Amino acid sequence: MGDMMPAEAKRARVNEAYAQQSRALVEEKLILRHLPMVRHIVQKVAAHLPRRWDVEDLVSAGTLGLVRAARQFDPARGTEFSTYAYIRIRGAVIDELRQRSFVPSSVHERIR
């Protein structure tokens, strides 16, 4: 960008801003489209948990996993987003369970 003319530099900045905005819109669409997957995964995991567990905490963790998946997804790797997101969401939910540590390891084994 150092040897670009002012107009070219401005055009490059505009193009970069457009690309970032487009990426943000794509991420938002991916998140909204796959949000039901979070509840589905949490319901499957929660089936193996004691009833006292607050499922909404797991939904929050799963939602963060989905957001991270949307931000880090690279379509050039040839993987469907839904496959990638499923793994990331489930991993975030299981990480939340592990962090809470009062879930017995036998429950972790059943969830895997």
From TrEMBL:
PANTHER family linked: RNA POLYMERASE SIGMA FACTOR FLIA, SIGMA FACTOR F FLAGELLAR
Pfam families in alphabetical order: Sigma70_r2 (PF04542)
The protein, known as: RNA polymerase sigma-70 domain-containing protein
A biological process from GO: DNA-templated transcription initiation
RNA polymerase sigma-70 domain sequence ranges: 57-70
Keyword annotations from UniProtKB, A to Z: DNA-binding, Sigma factor, Transcription, Transcription regulation
PROSITE patterns per record: SIGMA70_1 (PS00715)
Native source organism of the sequence: marine sediment metagenome
Any one GO molecular-function label of the UniProt entry: DNA binding
